[in-house]
Write a structure and sequence with these properties.
The chain is mainly alpha-helical. 63% of the residues lie in helices and 4% in strands. It is built from 25 helices and five strands.
């Protein structure tokens, strides 16, 4: 009989005295190298297209002679045409898998045993390319994560690994994709651990690290120390740093980004709902969003002096981030004008992303969050200088610091993943001097964002479908909860020498199915379960002659109020019962814990965490 590839690899490993899942290291290496090629093939052409427009040039505040025909035609035609292509591809390739990419991956990981249709990766590649290349306001990181997840899932299914190992391979490919985009292998690892898998176990961590490192190493070999997105040139002449007096400023920036992030998520939800209510074919909705984006772009061209460039809120936005950082590093005398430009840019990117993604356009939300955060952060830094607080002993601020911190804070506020946000910006800058404000503002933004809107930009779609994933692995959450955290209903106690007829009467009276058995002194002696009583009722004529002691179970474990729920779950699984008695220190029953109430507490904790 033909064995699965994974089984053959395990046998080889057993002969060589290797660990059971040793082959995951080999697969992680291959997936990392493959994802370096896939990520480059997907993202690099988009970066070339975006540089054609060279938006927000340093002389962007100067009055332009007019709007070129090429730019005008692109703004009018490209977003709508790209929307039509996106809508057609979405309906033709795997039409049953509707919805954004990362929520689809999350659903597959947690509800479909990490099984993703390989065609989903192809669809995401084509639709994201048509959306972003035509000017749609979306990022390429979400699509590359989806493409990688499809590759990882397909690899696991091809060699027929178990669910846990397939999930690990999905994480390997997704981490490698993020590592390639930003040349940030650590951030790629934590993106997967913190957002996708919610699992920090060593067994999962090891292959994901290997895949991320291999992908980043190959990307560096091709492109040098830079990455497909690298603001290093804009930061080359900037002195980054942090002073204690700036802490209140970063507190304000973190709170502001948290507020904006919460309304960004709300606006996307509202946009998706509004476009979903249109009585038109789903295929045409992205085209409508593209048409509205064109109108916004035309208004920008005719109402501003920046008429020689494609509107800066079109496309991925990475070149625009570079220019924002360049603006922030230049202490212009026209600071009020630059301040207004930055605020307008952040607002326009906000609206453009809602129009693109909300209408069904394909793309991620990472890059828009980075651009909005950079704009808001640079604006706060410039505002500090405009207020001129030197009389109070406060020196001028460096707006570049605030722009970088704003990027991390905005990503943290939208994803509720502060570790990922901190590490991405830190690895982009390679500057330890700003790590303190990065950490502070990202955590503040996450707290404020979750207070105002409990769901992240990735989990909100799943929550609408009644699926709650929590913020961590299930086992970790169960380890945090104790039996004392469970709200228990009233329970029924019977004496060890009562007749079985009393049990039948109590069941008919109030529907009780599980009974705690005690002696005359109130000490626990056993448990009568519903299954035990049903077995006794097979010989109903003997019920008046039976005592409780003859049908109760003495082999069942009991539960201590301080025990964590993961330990209790193990007891339920081992003995296959629906309820266990909770005893005090003096062997007196204080309650009856059922599987149903345990799971209800778990679900409630998922919604609150």
């Amino acid at each position: 009989m033909d064995l699965a590839v994974s089984s053959k690899l395990r046998r080889i490993g057993a002969r060589l005295h290797l660990r059971r899942d040793w082959y995951l290291v080999l697969l992680a290496t291959l997936i990392g190298l493959l994802m370096a090629c896939v990520s480059t093939a997907f993202i690099y052409p988009l970066r070339i297209v975006e540089t054609w427009g060279n938006p927000l040039a340093p002389e962007g505040l100067a009055i332009q002679e007019g709007i070129s025909t090429g730019i005008l035609l692109f703004v009018i035609l490209a977003p709508t045409t790209g929307g039509l292509i996106t809508g057609w591809l979405t309906c033709v390739i795997v039409p049953s898998l509707a919805g954004p990419g990362i929520p689809t991956v999350l659903y597959a990981i947690h509800r479909r045993r990490a099984r993703l249709d390989p065609r989903l990766g192809l669809r995401k590649w084509l639709t994201a390319t048509s959306t972003i290349a035509s000017g749609g306001s979306a990022g390429a990181e979400g699509p590359i994560v989806t493409i990688g997840a499809a590759i990882g899932s397909g690899t696991g299914r091809l060699i027929r690994t178990g669910t846990q190992n397939t999930t690990t391979l999905v994480g390997c490919a997704a981490s490698a994709g993020i590592a390639c985009v930003f040349n940030a292998p650590i951030a790629g690892i934590f993106f997967v651990m913190e957002i996708l898998l919610r699992d920090f176990s060593l067994r999962t961590f090891t292959p994901i690290v290997i895949a991320s490192v291999m992908a980043s190493a190959l990307t560096q070999y091709w492109f040098g120390t830079g990455a497909l997105f690298d603001p290093g040139e804009a930061l080359s002449d900037v002195q980054l740093g942090f002073a204690m007096w700036e802490l209140p400023n970063y507190l304000i920036l973190g709170c502001l980004c948290g507020v904006i992030a919460s309304y960004f998520i709300r606006a996307l939800v509202w946009s998706e709902r509004t476009f979903g209510n249109f009585t038109i074919p789903r295929m045409l909705r992205p085209a409508i969003g593209g048409a509205l984006l064109s109108i916004l772009g035309l208004a920008y061209l005719f109402l501003t002096t920046d008429r020689g460039q494609i509107p800066p809120f079109f496309g991925n936005g990475y070149p625009v981030i570079d220019k924002v950082l360049s603006y922030a590093s230049t202490m212009s005398t026209e600071m009020w004008s630059v301040l207004g430009l930055l605020l307008a840019l952040g607002a326009l990117k906000f609206i453009a992303t809602c129009l693109t993604v909300g209408s069904g356009g394909s793309g991620g939300l990472f890059a828009p969050s980075l651009l909005v955060g950079a704009s808001m952060g640079a604006a706060i830094g410039i505002l500090v200088n405009v207020l001129n607080l030197s009389a109070l002993g406060i020196p001028p601020a460096n707006p570049v610091n605030y722009a970088l911190v704003g990027m991390a804070a905005m990503v943290a506020g939208t994803t509720h993943a502060p570790l990922t946000a901190i590490l991405i910006v830190y690895e982009l800058t390679r500057s330890y001097e700003i790590i303190l404000p990065l950490m502070f503002a990202a955590i503040v933004s996450t707290i404020v964002g979750r207070l105002l809107f409990s769901e992240s930009i990735y989990s909100v779609r799943l929550t609408q479908q009644g699926i709650r994933l929590g913020r961590m692995s299930d086992l970790t959450l169960l380890r945090r909860l104790c039996v004392d955290d469970v709200i228990l209903p009233s329970h029924t106690q019977v004496l060890v020498n009562d007749t079985a007829q009393k049990l039948v009467e109590l069941t008919e009276q109030d529907g009780t199915t599980d009974f705690i058995v005690i002696d005359q002194d109130g000490h626990y002696r056993g448990l009568v379960t519903g299954d035990d009583l049903r077995e006794a009722l097979v010989f109903r004529e003997a019920i008046p002659l039976l005592q409780v002691s003859e049908i109760m179970r003495r082999d069942l474990p009991t539960v201590d109020p301080s025990e964590t729920l993961d330990v209790v779950m193990a007891k339920f699984a081992r003995y296959d019962v629906d309820a266990l008695a909770i005893l005090s220190d003096h062997d007196h029953p204080i309650g009856l814990l059922s599987r149903a109430h345990l799971m209800a507490t778990y679900q409630d904790a998922l919604s609150q965490d």
